[in-house]
Design a protein that fits this description.
The protein is of the alpha/beta class. The chain is 42% helix and 16% strand. The chain is built from twelve helices and twelve strands. Helix 5 links the parallel strand 5 and strand 6. 45% of the residues are buried.
Length: 350
């Protein structure tokens, strides 16, 4: 039986991972540490709180006293570190929070693990969840990112994640801490906070509001269903080689404008209106330092761990949009005052 500390387990990917782990590893204990900032939502975990092997702790990963106490009291032997500030736009307008959470928070967790596991780390694992954005941007004909692609972050968000990736690597090489790192592509699926592209466009289209598209909309991303991401993390956690990095990607590149048009077509089918939803598309000024293309080569995951995505984007997007239609109460509640203020600030010209 493992005792997992899952940081950020009330967020989008973290809560999906909690659901995944309880379903597939019900014998293990889960301690979910989350600060419940604007994107953390305990409704994502409805029903799970009744599990006798699950315990939620409201707290900040930068709180060293709390983190050390949890390691000592709960006998933590596994860390799955999701907790992070993750929205690029927010990092441009307020970078300090990203440095604090993503860099100092990761340092705090690494220090607690190093001290606690100093004499007994044979069964321990520290899995650090990161992003493909640390690799920078690609040209149209460049090969996809591999685990050896040099870091070239272009936003405060990606720079903060690159910094935390370097810290994790350093703790392996300097202290022998049993770490593994995963770098994922753009996730989508249930429980995603509606500031991100897919839920933002879908909800705006549903409400006949403008659909904001940065620049010419030709920025390309590799899209990964969150359930496939959770399966990948599970595989790395159990079978990945210590000190290694594994890229988890959807092998599925789409331009942003094509994503928006696809969502419009699906919504036209699901909720026919007087006019096509694509007429709501509104191009807005591109954000500073906007990377042009991300793409992940996930062959290491396949060759070493036998993992590959199960979802195609076509099946995954339909499942996701249906989930948002069926859970309107959920996304209406999460759009609180802070979220509306952010949207108004970002898209004030619409």
């Amino acid at each position: 039986m493992k005792t997992l500390l899952i940081t950020g387990g009330a967020g989008f990917i973290g809560s999906n991972f909690v659901h995944h782990w309880i379903k597939h590893h019900p014998e293990d204990r889960i301690i979910n540490l989350d600060a419940l900032t604007y994107a953390g939502n305990l409704e994502n975990l409805a029903g799970i709180e009744e599990s006798e092997n699950y315990h939620f702790v409201h707290g900040d990963i930068c709180d060293a006293a709390l983190v050390n106490k949890l390691f000592d009291k709960e006998n933590i032997d596994t860390v799955v570190h999701f907790a992070a500030e993750s929205h690029v736009d927010r990092s441009i307008t307020g970078p300090e929070a990203f440095i604090k959470t993503n860099v100092h928070g990761t340092f705090t967790l690494l220090e607690a693990a190093r001290k606690t596991w100093a004499n007994d780390d044979t069964r321990c694992r520290f899995l650090h969840v990161s992003t493909d954005e640390v690799y920078g941007t690609l040209e149209a004909d460049d090969p996809a990112f591999t685990e050896t692609t040099p870091f070239a972050p272009n936003s405060p968000y990606s720079a903060s994640k690159a910094s935390s990736d370097h810290l994790v690597r350093a703790y392996f090489h300097t202290y022998g801490l049993p770490v593994v790192t995963t770098n994922c592509s753009n996730n989508y699926g249930p429980y995603q906070f509606p500031e991100k592209l897919i839920p933002l466009v879908f909800i705006n289209a549903l409400e006949n509001k403008p659909l904001p598209v940065y620049g010419d909309g030709q920025q390309i991303r590799d899209w990964l269903h969150v359930a496939d991401h959770c399966r990948g993390i599970d595989a790395v956690l159990q079978h990945g080689r210590l000190g290694e990095t594994y890229n988890i990607g959807g092998c599925n590149e789409w331009a942003n404008i094509d994503i928006v048009k696809l969502i419009c077509r699906h919504l036209d089918e699901l909720r026919p209106g007087d006019k096509p939803k694509a007429e709501l598309i509104t191009y807005v000024t591109d954000r500073p330092g906007h990377d042009r293309r991300y793409a992940i080569d996930a062959s290491k995951m396949l060759n070493e761990l036998g993992w590959k995505p199960e979802y195609t984007f076509e099946t995954g997007i339909k499942q996701t949009l249906n989930w948002y239609l069926e859970n309107q109460t959920w996304w209406e509640r999460v759009r609180d005052g802070e979220y509306r203020k952010f949207i108004e600030q970002q898209y004030s010209t619409l």
